[in-house]
Amino acid sequence: MGEATDPVGRRATAKLLGPDGYRFTVETALAAVKRVLTGDAPTGAWTPTQAFGADFVTALPGVELLQAQQGHFTL
Fold first, then answer.
1. Which phi-psi region, left, alpha or beta, contains residue 13 (left: φ > 0; alpha: ψ -120 to 50)?
2. Residue 49: which H helix or E strand, with range?
3. In a 3-state reduction of DSSP, which class is residue 6?
4. List of residues 6+ apart from 24 with CB closer than 8 A
5. CA 63/CA 60 separation, integer angstroms
């Protein structure tokens, strides 16, 4: 779960659900390697979000992003 607050004091909260840590690591690594090998990654050192975009992780199998709205998480 993550939470961010802007300078005005507004908060946004989200929760990322996914497979167990070992499977998530394998799925993430394989997806990243595939993109690198097909030329869909910039050269240099980047975080996954910088290299593949903010939606990279939510495109992986079994991963869901839940966002809090009025204290309840929704898809």
1. beta
2. helix 48-52
3. coil
4. 18, 60, 63
5. 6
Q: List pLDDT tens digits, range 10-63.
A: 888 889 999 999 999 999 999 999 999 999 999 999 998 899 998 999 999 999
* DSSP letters spanning 11-46: EEEEEEE-S-HHHHHHHHHHHHHHHHHTT-S-SS--
Handedness of CA 12, 2, 35, 47 (dihedral sign): positive
Distance of CA 8 to the CA centre of its chain: 25
What is the pTM assigned to this prediction? 0.71
